[in-house]
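Appendix C reproduces, verbatim, an entry submitted by the partner laboratory led by Prof. M.T., so that reviewers can inspect both the input and the predicted structure.
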Amino acid sequence: QVQLVESGGGLVQPGGSLRLSCTASGSPFNIYGMNWYRQAPGKQSELVAAVSNVGSTKYVDSVKGRFTISRDNAKNTVYLQMNSLKPEDTAVYYCNAHIFNLDYWGQGTQVTVSS
């Protein structure tokens, strides 16, 4: 069992930056693949960025070059650095821990990009 707590969301102007954090507890962190999903109003959830347990990363095309996912296993934390934010990045962002057929989710953090 893994508990995930996100932080770092908020309101930012277009072109600004935010860093999301997700801290895990309750189970060894370094065995999980860690992901950030987002869901905008009226849209389906999408996988934004992923980092494997060995550190390989992947991104949805719309955020490549702007977002960076990283993990610090010593701190049981995964980060999502978001730069050059656009209004279309507005969504609730969810942290996910995945291993085999198990998925654990955080409560979500709101990111709003607006002038």
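The chain has no helices and eleven strands. Additional entries are available on request from the coordinating office.
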